[in-house]
Amino acid sequence: MAVLLLLLLLSISAVHADEGAYIGVNIGTALSAMPSPTQVVALLKSQNIRHVRLYDADASLLAALANTGVRVVVSVPNEQLLAIGSSNATAAAWVARNVAAHFPAVNISAIAVGSEVLTSMPNAAPLLLPAIRFLQSALVASNLDKFVKVSTPHSSSIILDSFPPSQAFFNRSLDPVLTPLLRFLQSTSSPLFLNVYPYYDYMESNGVIPLDYALFRALPPNKEAVDANTLLHYTNVFDALVDAAYFAMAYLNVTNVQVVVLESGWPHKGDPSTEPDATTENADTYNSNLVRHVINSTGTPKHPGIPVPTYLYELYDEDQRPGALSEKSWGLFDSTGLPAYTLHITGSGLLLANDTTNQTFCVAREGADPKMLQAALDWACGPGKVDCSVLMQGQACYDPDSVESHASYAFNAYYHGMGMGSGTCYFSGVAAITTTDPSQGSCLFAGSGGKNGTSLLNGTSLAPSANSTADQSGSTRTAILAGASFLQLLVLLMSTTLQLL
């Protein structure tokens, strides 16, 4: 058992060390009809979201995330900062309860201590670094410090004179906290968490910042912002703010701390009279362009090709948030899991596949275990009721003759036959959604060119009927059954193995 645990921890360490570019999503809970933890996780799986940030360390949601591989940032809410920053024992108890008790089944990667404390709770600022150090000590004592980093999210407003970026510097009044904090991040190889909201920068600029510049829209060369000191060209607010953070750190002789954008997004609805640019079109434009920008490892003008991991704000619309209408309308989905609007991120691969305009497909996950793929393929073509005759030798989808190719066809046929329902593209983790059409030659996948694929299922689906009287978790149970449970795949895998012996 100890050897297995060691191997698991080593594998987690290897994944953490080579993360590269990725998009994560924040999960807020200020909803009048908050989905159950299992429904949340089913949505994450269906959208292939592999990185999330929680605003607390909810035990039920962490339990649902166990063994999913999803990397999780847990948070210390601002109201808990006083207790943790005042007591090493309290911090140790927090780590024991909210991190150690769930790790490694839950792939916790970081602790976000507070939220924009230096700007939203300046009176609590003296306790921020003690809280971070106490939590770090608790992680060290639990042998978790190599896997779980500690940082704190900052508003980008702590950066003054952010343009040109080369002249940016942190608010000097924050030096007593910020300077030792940056030294801590440097010594522990932890990131600087930054919240970047071009929407607010645009709204507060009184017309100085063009909307296209905030939305990542292409600008002609003569409209690009140029840093006169470095001659670097900036085509969007996001890059300028990230580089401003890098220059501000360099001003304090800190040059090896990575910027991770913990929150960024655009509201899709607002008061037409006061928030005219909070629209679905602008939200789609900003988030779609941001996703492409990040996952392509575009980097920034100061650090081209260096990934800027970014977490979108947010998974769900939070209708119970106070304030303007836009405050309630940042979600990618509503509380039922339906897209709040359509993202146009075709070409981004296996990520956030609510791009219904450009079709979505369910395919074998890259690098999936071939035996698990074969077991899942057997399930789809058997109990899953998929018509797999087209995969027979001599038929349109036989070539390429590989388990990955055949599994992709069968997974996709099931996914579309089930109406692309949440969780129906999972198959115990060996399937994923993509916006890239996998059709080849005469082998057309369901969903290609408008084909809905409903005829690709033989007979009645195994999913529970629509008039099921089950509780709210019914959709999740549908997803589990439709996607083939681990037990079903294990039985099929064992059966296949025995036949080969």
Outline the structure in words.
The protein has 501 residues and is an alpha/beta fold. It contains 16 helices and 15 strands. The strands form four sheets. A nine-stranded parallel β-sheet has the order 5-4-3-2-1-13-12-9-6. A two-stranded antiparallel sheet has the order 7-8. Strand 7 (159-160) and strand 8 (169-170) form a beta hairpin.
Summary, kept brief:
The protein has 501 residues and is an alpha/beta fold.
**Overall number of strands:** 15
Major β-sheet annotation: 9 strands, parallel
Cα-to-Cα separation, first versus last residue? 28 Å
Any low-confidence stretches, pLDDT <50, length ≥5? 1-18, 450-501
* Major sheet strand order: 5-4-3-2-1-13-12-9-6
Shape: globular
Instruction: Output the number of helix runs.
Output: 16
Structural class: alpha/beta
> How much is the radius of gyration in Å?
24 Å
Mean pLDDT: 83
Q: What proportion strand?
A: 5-15%
Percent helix among the residues? 25-40%
Task: Describe the SSE topology.
Layout: H1 2-17, E1 23-27, H2 37-46, E2 51-54, H3 59-65, E3 71-76, H4 81-86, H5 88-100, E4 107-113, H6 117-120, H7 125-141, E5 149-151, E6 153-155, E7 159-160, E8 169-170, H8 175-187, E9 192-195, H9 198-203, H10 211-214, E10 225-226, E11 233-234, H11 237-251, E12 259-264, H12 280-295, E13 310-312, E14 361-364, H13 370-381, H14 403-417, E15 431-434, H15 474-482, H16 486-500
Parallel strand pairs: 1-2, 1-13, 2-3, 3-4, 4-5, 6-9, 9-12, 12-13
Antiparallel strand pairs: 7-8, 10-11, 14-15
Helix pairs in contact: 2-3, 5-7, 7-8, 13-14, 13-16
